[in-house]
Design a protein that fits this description.
Blueprint: E1 12-14, E2 33-39, E3 44-45, E4 69-70, E5 75-78, E6 83-89, E7 102-104, E8 106-108, E9 118-125, E10 133-139, E11 155-162, E12 167-174, E13 182-191, E14 197-204, E15 209-213, E16 216-221, E17 232-238, E18 261-273
Parallel strand pairs: 1-13, 4-7
Antiparallel strand pairs: 2-18, 3-5, 5-6, 6-7, 6-18, 8-17, 9-14, 9-18, 10-11, 10-17, 11-12, 12-13, 14-15, 15-16
Length: 276
């Protein structure tokens, strides 16, 4: 993902106690919502390939060797009801003696599930350390269309977060990632977000996007014109040594982190609304 760091004043929100893990039909969702897709991550080993694709590629090549790989072995189920997204050092992957090669995990429902509008929710535990960031987001390939509008496809970042601070980001990106790229976003310091599990929710309608953390509304927007095309689900860890992305206003320098580090996802659930 291409990131634009927004200079928006931080607010503080005291988080409520976390609920125990519920069944998919008893998560406080009213009868207007119908469950359409879910993964409770109750398996072991690799992820369910009927629900998830696992991309593998290097984020970028650089003079000191590659960094930021997405590797399949860094996304797996732990046998305790969680998806694990792991970040780690992978020294000498290319036999180049580069001490700064890293990998993270990623899963996406590409080719398995996509939906336009609805409620999208994940219950997650943030990583512990600096040097990488994690995300729960929606994507459609038409994001790359450059027509001055997000209606034909918007990257919807329901949550982006870190292990080194308690800031949660919500972001929207449209019109590709080149000179025409546009974005809007909101970030907020959330006391206690680094401890335990928290729920991150998007309600996406034809009129607007509404974001929630632990059931509390944090931001709403119709920036770019609300996307009207189906999107697939992504859960990712990301790492880069580029100055902006490894700087003090984003993930921080991975050389200061402790690896391996882990991002846990308890569940992902998606609902549609009867009027959609």
């Amino acid at each position: 993902m291409i990131k634009i760091i927004l200079l928006i004043p931080f607010l503080t929100l005291v988080m409520c106690d976390q609920p125990v893990k519920d069944e998919a039909d008893s998560n406080g969702v009213d009868s207007l919502w119908t469950l359409t897709w879910q993964d409770e991550f109750n398996g072991t080993g690799g992820v369910d390939s009927t629900k998830w694709d696992q991309p593998e590629y290097n984020r970028r090549a650089n003079d000191n060797g590659p960094d930021g790989w997405w590797l399949k072995e860094d996304a797996y189920q732990d046998g305790n009801g969680n998806l694990v997204i792991r970040a780690r050092r992978i020294n000498n992957r290319n036999n180049d003696n580069d001490p700064y090669d890293y990998s993270t995990g990623a899963v996406r429902s590409l080719g398995r599930f996509e939906q336009r509008y609805g409620k999208f929710e994940a219950r997650c535990q943030m990583p512990e350390y600096a040097g990488w960031w994690v995300a729960f987001w929606l994507f459609s390939n038409s994001v790359f269309n450059e027509d001055g509008s997000g209606e034909d496809g918007t990257e919807i970042d329901i949550m982006e977060g870190f292990g080194w601070n308690e800031i949660i980001h919500h972001n929207l990106h449209w019109d590709g990632y080149g000179n025409a790229h546009r974005s809007a976003g909101f970030n907020q310091t959330m006391e206690g977000i680094s401890e335990g599990f928290h729920t991150f929710t998007l309600e996406w309608s034809e009129a607007e996007y509404i974001f929630f953390v632990d059931g509390i509304e944090t931001w709403r927007s119709a920036a770019g014109g609300v996307s009207k095309v189906p999107a697939y689900v992504k859960l990712t860890g990301e790492l880069s040594t580029l100055p902006g992305l490894s700087g003090e206003y984003w993930a921080n320098d991975p050389a200061t982190g402790f690896f391996p580090d882990h991002f846990l996802v308890d569940y992902v659930r998606v609902w549609s609304r009867s009027s959609d």
